[in-house]
Write a structure and sequence with these properties.
- The chain is an alpha+beta fold.
- It is built from five helices and seven strands, in the order H-E-H-H-H-E-E-E-E-E-E-H.
- The protein has a seven-stranded antiparallel β-sheet with strand order 1-7-6-5-4-3-2, with helices on one face.
- Strand 2 and strand 3 form a beta hairpin.
- The longest helix is centred in the first third of the chain and has 23 residues.
Length: 173
């Protein structure tokens, strides 16, 4: 009986410690990456402004090729909505909010049924007539105690992998 009592106290202590750590870990996050693609800015923009193309290069789609996808609206225009369901990478929704032709695409992402948008964007900067710097970034909030996951999960790697995939696709065309 004493062993069960001590085991219970140890488990409660660990849960308490985890909740305390989660209380001090930031709830806001910023992630993203940049890459140079050897293609003219116009070509790169025409590809990245279409949200349907993200499934070809984003790291999450490659982790789960069985994602259920649903699209509404006209791709490449504000209001276009992409929803997904996945047992491996979670469920969510992405809404295209702004297109600054040739320069920037802005989106709101909603993860796992949350009503809180996580603003994201892809921004293109021409380097010269044949190369373009692409930045893909996101800002958001993770609710307590799920913010603890930020200690173990680095989204920067996913964005870097996605941009590397995008570079490979576009430079082969």
């Amino acid at each position: 009986m004493k062993i069960l009592k001590y085991l219970l106290f140890i488990i409660l202590g660990l849960v308490g410690l985890i909740l305390i750590v989660a209380a001090v870990v930031p709830k806001e996050f910023h992630a993203g990456s940049e890459i140079v693609i050897q293609k003219p800015s116009k070509e790169v923009f025409e590809y990245v402004k279409l949200i349907r193309n993200q499934g070809n290069y984003d790291n999450w789609s490659r982790q789960d090729p069985n994602i259920e996808r649903h699209y509404e609206g006209t791709d490449g225009t504000p209001g276009f909505t992409y929803t997904w369901k996945s047992k491996k990478v979670g469920d969510g929704k992405q809404v295209l909010t702004k297109v600054d032709e040739g320069k920037r695409v802005e989106m709101d992402l909603f993860f796992n049924g949350s009503d809180d948008p996580n603003p994201s964007y892809m921004e293109l900067t021409p380097i010269d007539s044949t190369s373009t710097k692409v930045a893909w970034k996101i800002d958001g909030k993770m609710p307590y105690p799920f913010n603890l996951m930020s200690l173990f999960f680095d989204m920067n790697k996913d964005f870097a992998a996605g941009l590397s995939n995008l570079k490979e696709i576009l430079e082969k065309q």
